[in-house]
Amino acid sequence: MSRESLTKKKSFDWITLSVFFSLVTIGWFMVFSTLYDPKNQFAFLDVTTLIGAQSLWVVLSMLAFFSVLTLDWKFWNTLAYPIYAIGILFLILVLIFGDVINGARAWFSFGFFSIQPSEWAKFGTALALSSYLSFFKTSVTTTNVLAVSLAIFLGPALLILLQPDFGSALIFFSFFILLYRRGMSPWVIIIGIGIAAIFIYSLIFTPLDSTALLVFLAGTIFAFDMEKPVRALIIATGVLAAFIGMKYIPAAQSYFFVPAAAMFGYYLFLEIKKSNARLVSLVVPVMVFASVFAFGSSYVFDNFLKPHQQERINVWLRPEKCDPRGSLYNIIQSKMAIGSGGLAGKGFLQGEMTKLDYVPEQSTDFIFTSIGEEQGFIGTLGVIILFTILLIRCIIIAERANLEFIRNYGYAVGGILFFHFSFNIGMTMGLLPVVGIPLPFISKGGSSLMVFTIMVAVLLKMDMARFRSN
Questions:
Q1: Which of 454, 434, 453, 452 has the alpha carbon at shortest distance from 368?
Q2: Are 256 and 296 in a shared domain?
Q3: Residue 213 has pLDDT above 80, yes or no
Q4: What is the mean pLDDT of residues 294-300?
Q5: Are residues 456 and 378 part of one domain?
Q6: Exposed/middle/buried for residue 68 (C-beta within 10 Å: 0-12, 13-18, 19+)
């Protein structure tokens, strides 16, 4: 065997390849199971059927996979911006000429095939952002670079929101992982998580409860700056205990605001007396903004969101307000299907809830329920392990890369996969809102399968470049 052949064999990531093929294979079998018709057992050979079309997409994806491996990795760096521009163009065109499916104008239909431009836009955005951040002396710590980076992936997200397809738009926020890896301040992510937490808390409870908790937290921050933090901790703990106790007394729920405000006012007075203007100027404006945001979130939810949008959030945060036979039906059936599988599952093609169509969208967004019912806990755990290995391999490939473009691309692909994986499984189990995000390589859908296949193929080809000097 020649030295060049040994180098190629050593440089190729066989672990990632094996995981990729395993997920695609599992995906095809699970789609076959959800669409199985005993009267037409060979429907997978007929491209006019749903399973036949998916089988054709699997074949085309495999051809695309091996075709990508024949190209030089520099091809993708050179054409990163043109590919991104084409993706933006198609996102605009689909708003004008696209077909409406499930309430979103997000597809181009060609006979029994349909193409979703938002899936391809993820790939183009990953290339463009990776290329931009690989420029010499480009740093996300500078305002202009951060602004351009945000524009690169928030632009497509905005176009997708106009379809409207909130789930696909949400995936573009995964690029914050890449920005964080490149040195973006963690405060950006912390602030984002904080705003999301305030929104969630204000809907689960009330805006006044949210404000009371914010006042309590602000007072606690002041308290720990005192000369006797132990005493401050005791006081803060007592106030929080009062809050927890009052949450179980409906008539007194909002009265937590009184002790919290008293504690805050006392420690604010002490801070002003100490002339600690820096801490006061930092904590008080943040608390005021957060309180206004809490009331604003509740107002927008009640007065601006459409009923079906409110239902989606209520299913997630306030299921007691939803109709079990209406908006809550999907989640209830999904949980039942997953739980009915037990440890080892009912067996391939033996899922009763799958066969009787109890779970809507079971071949696409809710395909994880079919895995749970037919393969049980062992099967679902196996799929989770495979995705975890794939995510770890993305990080490994990125970190061992000797070029910034490849490192950036590795984190971009890893972020997209992580968001898809976590949101899909989270929504099928009721942990996250149902926003229509497919499970990569497994959910039915040609555009999704093809794009994720190309993403992985490009990453594997780029990884081979680490053994080359140029």
A1: 434
A2: yes
A3: no
A4: 87
A5: yes
A6: buried
Instruction: Work out the mean pLDDT of the chain and round it to a whole number.
Output: 84
pLDDT for 234 equals: 62
**Long-range contacts: 326-335, Cβ < 8 Å, 24+?**
329/360, 330/359, 330/360, 330/361, 330/366, 330/434, 331/430, 331/434, 333/358, 333/359, 333/360, 333/369, 334/359, 334/366, 334/369, 334/428, 334/429, 334/430, 335/429, 335/430
Q: What is the pLDDT of residues 355-412, one digit of tens each?
A: 667 777 788 888 999 999 999 999 999 999 999 999 999 999 999 998 999 999 999 9
User: What pLDDT, on the 0 to 100 scale, is given for residue 450?
Assistant: 94
C-alpha to C-alpha distance for 460 and 448, rounded to whole angstroms: 18
The neighbour count for residue 412, using CB atoms within 10 Å, is: 29
- Tell me how far CA of residue 104 lies from CA of 101, 118, 159, 434, in angstroms: 6, 12, 12, 15
Q: Is the pLDDT of residue 130 over 80?
A: yes
CA 391 to chain CA centroid, Å, is 13
The whole-angstrom separation of Cα 116 and Cα 432 is 24
Out of 279, 304, 329, pick the residue that ends a domain: 304
- Do 142 and 250 share a structural domain? no
- Contacts for 72 with CB less than 8 Å, ≥ 6 apart: none
